[in-house]
Amino acid sequence: MSLKKVLLLGLVISLGQLAVYSSNGLSNPMPVNEKNSSKILVQKALEKNNKGEYTQALNDLTEALRLDAQAVDAYFNRGLTYYHLHQKERAIEDFSTAIFLNRQFVEAYVNRGNIYLELEEYSKAVGDYQKVLEIDPLNYLAFNNLGLVYMNLGEYNQAKKFFNSAIKLQPDYLDAYFNQALLLVELGQKENAIVNFRKAMTLASDQHNLEVYQAAQQELAKLQKKSF
Fold first, then answer.
1. What is the pLDDT at residue 5?
2. Which tens digits make up the pLDDT trace of 18-28?
3. C-alpha dihedral (131, 112, 160, 198), degrees to nearest 10
4. 3-state class of 102 per DSSP?
5. Backbone angles phi, psi at 25, to 5 degrees
């Protein structure tokens, strides 16, 4: 049985490691050339993405790539921007290009895998998450997301193993507790599911995540009324 519930799955946020542009100007003066101008545009786009100004960010990132066609960070962040603009196929294309330019780009594999998961292209999603674990065997995001894949495929025992691995690696990983609670409901393990929803609520409160706190609260209330 394939689950249709909304599961916690977020894209890796924009990369901001270049640190060449700030609202007050250049943090590190650089000679003016097309490659450096491309980096500045990427930083401007990051700021616009953070404000939800996705169309404007897209324009900056496209111009950055016109100036430097090898700018892997621009492809990555444009992929993220396309995703926010609900253009998933274009997002996949840009994440794929980022991976072509950097075969060790963990964040790009995670994001592309997440979109494949949303599109229910499960074998492709598994391939990307497995590649992440080849590069970074302790990547808890990949374990959680593999759990989501197998949960949606109805392979609940396999999903549980992946959620447990994610939690073991990151004991305060809110997403994994919430997702595992949903899984335990499907397995008919009411008491264990209640424990996980309560843990998710505690973590959500600690992390000031009202959306997940309310989601866990609602699921918990429904579960407590439900007979197995």
1. 47
2. 322 233 333 44
3. 130
4. coil
5. 115, -160
Amino acid, res. 68: D
- The owner of tokens 């072509």 is 100
**Burial class for 123, CB neighbours closer than 10 Å (0-12, 13-18, 19+):** exposed
Shortest CA distance to 135 belongs to which of 176, 165, 94, 99? 99
Q: Helices 190-206 and 174-186 meet at what angle, rounded to 10?
A: 160
pLDDT of residue 174: 94
Q: What is the pTM of this model?
A: 0.85
Residue the block writes with tokens 């949303």: 118
Tokens of 68: 């430097």
What secondary structure letter does DSSP report for 28? S
Name the residue with tokens 């953070």. 50
- Please state the φ and ψ torsions of residue 26, each to the nearest 5 degrees: -75, 130
CA gap 120, 125 in Å, rounded: 8
- Output the CA angle 201-186-152, nearest 5 degrees: 95
| Angle formed by the axes of helices 88-101 and 106-118, nearest 10° | 150
